[in-house]
# Entry
Amino acid sequence: MSLFKRFYVAFLFLCASSSPQAQEWIGSPFVDHFEPKIYNAQPQNFSVAEDDRDILYFANNDGILVFDGEYWKLIYSESQAPVYSLFKSSAGRMYYGSVDELGVIASDSLGNLKAEALFLDESYESGRFHHIFEFQDQICFLGKYTGVFLKSGKQDSLQFKDECVGGFSLGEELFIQFKKDGLMKLIGGKLIPQQIPGLSSEELILQNIQDEGRSINYLIGMNGIWAEEGSLVKKVYTDVDELFSENGLLDAILDRNGNLLISVDNHGLFRLSPEGRLIEVIGRANGLPDITINSLLIDVFGSIWAASNNGISRINSKLGIKKFGGIDGLHGAVEDICFIENGTAIGTHEGVFVIDFSQNRRTQIVRQLRISIHKKLKI
# Structure
């Protein structure tokens, strides 16, 4: 079988797995990895966001990487410092956070993208602005020692005595998490110590994500997950809690089915059901080159984008790849493959085998055709 044919077969196999009959396909995801030499910037990426034109932005040590699906471009913050956070507001504006600087990505008179600083801390005490989110009608920027709150073009800033690690909302209330001082509620420009019933005082909450379909507000901690349902906050016990507690969570998003997609430090990605059951693990074993993922995004096409310490990965779970071998009932060196109704026929040195895709996707059936003459199957 020629090299061209092998690639062609692989391509058809991927296309078949994304067809309506293969929506439940279980296998390894298809991963594209963009190395630093491809996008011509530093390896480490901290955040990823997508605008209303489906253009992707990555917070990089060199600045802001822009990817339109074909070409890469690098734009710099005004201070030309590393960029650590990105956020698209409900109004469609793209904000960024750098070192002692925060701003917005806009277009100049020629339509070229540029970074416009909205806040520059000349005292250099703010540190990295690592977290941006929207609360009611204001954009909240959290730096290591400064919070900036943008509302109707006006800015309010607040200096922190302790290191800020994250922020989130519960109902109509805004909370900020500190490394040593714990959880604080922001009321009238003042920080008030707060304990939330059901939430451990030792847990550091990084962010929250809303599942509007199920009316659940998830609180993503450094070592666990909580959920707000109505007036109650309760821990979400998962199949991988021990891993969370030992290594730490880096980011979390919801997939299109309402499942949690969690990045765990140095362990890759974990897809969990709302009840905490493990659905899928995405790591080196199934093609992910870097398993320290700082930020996640699911784009308009359903692909997962992973901003990592060593490049950028695009993960497409719809184009699954599954290995079949002796344990599945397939024997002999493979010579040729062709697609048949509801399955695939494989010709090997030991006979002709059929993989039946009409069966449950978690337990594909491999059966050997009982024929007396072995004949190669040609595409």
About this structure: Residues 1-26+322-379 form one domain. Confidence is low (pLDDT under 50) at residues 1-25, 359-364, 372-379.
